[in-house]
Amino acid sequence: MGEQQQKSPGGERLFRLSEIQEQNSFRSTWIIIQNKVYDVTKFLEEHPGGEEVLREQAGGDATESFEDIGHSSDAREMASSMVIGELHPDDRQTLVQPEESLVTTVKDQTSWWSNWLIPCLVAAIVTLIYRIYTAESE
Q: Helix or strand or coil: residue 69?
């Protein structure tokens, strides 16, 4: 390697985002959580949420997903043993979230009309149809 490895002020190796993204394969899986780089390759089969969860985050920022799940202190301690370095400061602003599934990206922002008006209209129409139907059968 002709390139000298850069170190963070804390002494950890700095990785460029392009290096981390290259580690998105079946042989090697790296993720970023709070600007720390984790090699989770050996943990894939042991992950309680399944290896797919980690593979979806591979090569990108998994901070939000990691924090949303509410990992235990034991899980956080285990994760700390997988840290291999930090994301280079120049890449922290350009960090892109991995694509999320539709289930996690749909916002729960509905307006009053979809919560009240539509069900009321449907109930009124059903009642009207029922009354018409029962009136004809008498």
A: helix
- How far is it, in rounded angstroms, from Cα 91 to Cα 73? 28
| pTM score over 0.85 | no
pLDDT surpassing 60 at residue 92: yes
Phi/psi region, residue 82 (left: phi>0; alpha: psi -120 to 50; beta: rest), is: alpha
Among 12, 13, 7, 31, smallest CA distance to 21 is for 31
Q: Which residues, including other chains, have CB under 8 Å from residue 121's CB and lie 6 or more apart? A: none
16 phi, psi to nearest 5 deg: -80, 150
> How many CA atoms are closer than 13 Å to the CA of 110, on its beta-carbon side?
9
Tokens linked to 103: 């289930």
Q: Read off the pLDDT of residues 21-32 as tens digits, 9 standing for 90 and up.
A: 888 777 888 988
